[in-house]
Backbone:
């Protein structure tokens, strides 16, 4: 994590009246994960996943990777797959244990005139989830919903920021359904969705006009202008070089929880600066007049030798106090 003195001071000033802006990629892992499984009547959840898992092992699509990851975590059996085909814009199909199994989109379901529960689908789609259907020999086996996985650390970060009275805003180019779903799960104060790349800095500017200080967290090349516009720009270490070069602070470990560490570190550093300033000023205010002989008439005087020793002692005390920052 890189942070200079000016940013430390900014953090201390803005922490009590601040709006933190996040991008979706900062809060999520960027990997699809299964959120809901709806097997058809007479089909078990494991059987539905086995069929989808077996077919999706043949694909490298993000949705396929999410289903394969779930299958591996559950240690499910893989069926033998033959005649695999990628149906452009529709899904996948293959021969599984002698049956034709397809993992397809809602559009392909309608095109093939295969009925499904529209209410359940609309509910899942309304939460910003991607829904795929598993069909075996033209018979629906069930539906699987997937969504971008929210980082576990994101929940902790948002909760503590709110506990500190800090407003959080999520700004993303994703569609409103996906954005609102992530925002609702995390308890984000405000969600700004479907933002074009060049508009991010504009929204940061608008928020600053309300008299608030803004800290912007992002990782993409499109986030760079907004990072520069914010009072404090924070880049995820795994982000693009442009974002990293533009930001004031870099989270080397790419962990959102380090945002809380920044706040703690900035406040602790400012506290140490204040303590050392008080000590140094107090020493000079008292010691210099004494060394000049202001109390000579009452027998109190500091010789140059003693003054030099005390001055060195003052420097040592300030240095030790600064080192104590490591244990705070």
Residues:
């Amino acid at each position: 994590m890189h942070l200079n003195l000016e940013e430390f001071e900014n953090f201390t000033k803005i922490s009590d009246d601040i709006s933190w802006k996040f991008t979706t990629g900062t809060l999520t892992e960027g990997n699809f994960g299964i959120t809901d499984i709806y097997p058809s009547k007479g089909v078990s959840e494991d059987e539905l996943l086995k069929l989808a898992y077996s077919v999706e092992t043949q694909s490298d699509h993000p949705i396929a990777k999410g289903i394969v990851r779930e299958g591996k975590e559950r240690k499910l059996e893989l069926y033998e797959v033959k005649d695999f085909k990628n149906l452009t814009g529709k899904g996948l199909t293959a021969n599984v244990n002698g049956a034709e199994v397809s993992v397809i989109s809602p559009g392909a379901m309608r095109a093939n005139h295969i009925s499904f529960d529209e209410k359940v689908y609309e509910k899942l789609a309304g939460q910003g989830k991607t829904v795929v259907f598993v069909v075996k020999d033209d018979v629906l086996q069930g539906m699987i919903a997937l969504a971008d996985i929210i980082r576990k650390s994101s929940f902790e970060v948002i909760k503590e920021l709110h506990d500190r009275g800090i407003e959080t805003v999520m700004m993303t180019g994703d569609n409103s359904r996906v954005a609102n779903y992530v925002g609702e799960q995390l308890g984000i104060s405000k969600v700004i969705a479907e933002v074009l790349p060049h508009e991010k800095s504009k929204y940061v500017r608008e928020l600053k006009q309300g008299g608030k200080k803004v800290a912007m967290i992002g990782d993409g090349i499109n986030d760079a202008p907004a990072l520069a516009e914010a009072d404090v720009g924070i880049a995820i270490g795994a982000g693009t070089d442009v974002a990293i070069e533009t930001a004031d602070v870099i989270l080397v470990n790419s962990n959102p929880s380090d945002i809380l560490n920044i706040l703690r570190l900035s406040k602790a550093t400012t506290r140490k600066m204040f303590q050392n300033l008080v000590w140094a000023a107090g020493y000079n205010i008292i010691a210099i007049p004494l060394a000049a002989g202001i109390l000579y008439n009452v027998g109190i005087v500091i010789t140059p030798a003693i003054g030099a020793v005390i001055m060195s002692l003052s420097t040592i005390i300030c240095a030790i106090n600064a080192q104590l920052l490591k244990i705070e």
In short: DSSP finds 13 helices and twelve strands in the chain. The mean pLDDT is 82. The longest strand covers residues 28-39. Residues 266-327 form one domain.
